Amino acid sequence: MTALPFSAHSPLPDVDESTAPHWDGLDRGRLVLRRCGVCGSLNHPVAQLCRVCESPDLSWHEVSTRVTLFSWAIEGRAIIPGLTPPFVIGQVTPEECGEGEVRLIGLLDVAHSDLEIGLPLTLRPAQVPGFDKRLAVYARE
Amino acid sequence: MIPGLPIHIVGIGTTPLSKRSEQSDEDLVVAAVSAALADAGIGHERMTGLNVQSHHDPGPDVAAIVRTLGADSVSWAPTGGIGVPGMTRAIRAIAADRADVIVVCKVMNTATALNRPTVDENNRKVSGRDQFELPYGLGYTVQRAALVQRRWMSSRAVTPEQLGMLCSVQRDHALLNDNAIFKTPLSLDDYLAGRTICDPIRLFDCDMPINGAYAYVLSSNPDPAAPQRAVRVLASTDGDGDAMPHIRPEGVGVRSDVARIYAELGIGPDSLTALMLYDGFSYLVPQWMEALGIVEPEDVGAYIGDAANIRFDGATPVNTHGGQLSEGRMHGAGHIVEAVRQLRGEGGARQIARPSRAAVTTAFPATGGVAILEANR
Known about the structure:
- The complex is a heterodimer.
- In chain A, 6% of the residues lie in helices and 36% in strands.
- Chain A has one helix spanning 20-27, and strands at residues 12-13, 31-36, 42-43, 58-63, 66-75, 87-94, 104-109, 120-123, 126-127, 134-135, 137-139.
- A five-stranded mixed beta barrel of chain A has the order 5-6-7-11-8.
- Chain B has helices at 25-40, 62-69, 83-95, 141-156, 160-174, 188-193, 252-265, 284-291, 300-304, 307-310, 323-326, 333-344; strands at residues 7-14, 49-53, 101-108, 125-126, 196-198, 201-202, 212-219, 231-236, 274-276, 357-362, 369-375.
- In chain B, the strands form two sheets. Chain B has an eight-stranded mixed β-sheet with strand order 2-3-7-1-8-11-10-9, sandwiched between helices.
- In chain B, helix 1 (25-40) packs across helix 2 (62-69).
- Chain B is globular, with a radius of gyration of 20 Å.
- Chains A and B meet through strand 1, strand 5, strand 6 and strand 7 of A and strand 4, helix 4 and strand 5 of B.
- Strand 1 of chain A pairs parallel with strand 4 of chain B.
């Protein structure tokens, strides 16, 4: 376990009707993404068109909380106000799609020495002061 | 392919580069444009298009620049753009008869400026797609590049020493370029001792912010007085300026662009004798080498790790001006100007052996632009 960087001043998502299903999902401990009604592909929460078939027929869909580590960056600088360095920015792929096809950003609660590409991780949403929902943190099972 | 090619680059002009801003945007642009037109042997009155590209807001006063230059014939003057995609836009304007002599000028005059992520100061809220990144600490280009670099290095087993060799060779090139901002060598040890910016990106993996202006002149006709100094643009692509490299599939758009260019021109990567590859971050250079088919992904680390491959006098000369890492960050314009210089045979102490055909690239390989330039001699 490592310390998470959140504080009462860290940035928060401006949740609106176009993004609420994702944030409500995290608050329930679930990962909720966009799925294409035509070809069935999973898409990032910001997708407007399906990344595979370009259909606009996207709807919210709950996937498992299991992901694999696609990449990570270790930020040691205090460049984001309210976030205390060092912290590990992770880029993860949901279990339901091929490696890297959908890349989600979240913070990692993993010892630096354990980090490796392809590491299996599980969603562990974290509370942040002043936020009524939760943010995505990924940790080892 | 754009109709009307080949278009010719008939002049280049540069100001000195400085770490601190020493002149106004307008003075820098006027100096570089005047130098480029003088190099082309073209009077200011014959310039019918001017594209000023900057990286700050508000940008330069283009109307004042046109007045100062006495360029009364300018009828095409969009602002903005970068490197190869910017050149493509100007070529399209020539092909559409919007202008026949266009000067493209990049000015950098805010060396310390950052693109800060936007947070509502009243409630800490982040809107748009940044809401899925900034709350997790991801807000800057170098961080996104760090994610891409980690994945790329891991998937090809590239070592820091191999990337460091590329940076060291580019610095050696800069030492042969009087306009380069760096004046001292960069050893492998110096590279490895550079502080971490965002792990895995080290200090010397990042390009060097500078101030100055670089310009080049595009024309539908080579200058009849000195056609051997003209350089032909055989191909130039648009890129995709909107996409974010860390969530794009690797190299998808660029690979089809490159394949199409090679097929239409009837050439292959073996015919490229100079590689001016965008290096806002060092790892972009080997990524571009892969995208151009210069080297297979599994061999790319060993290739850049051997100076004999990438030096100006090596097998595939890379960024012979020093690139943005060591000449300075001109956002793609430096690569175009250097390609012209080399293809004219005016590379001086760093002249390549076979100045016939160069690839020039801009931005991230997932989203950027590719041009093929050829000597007219």
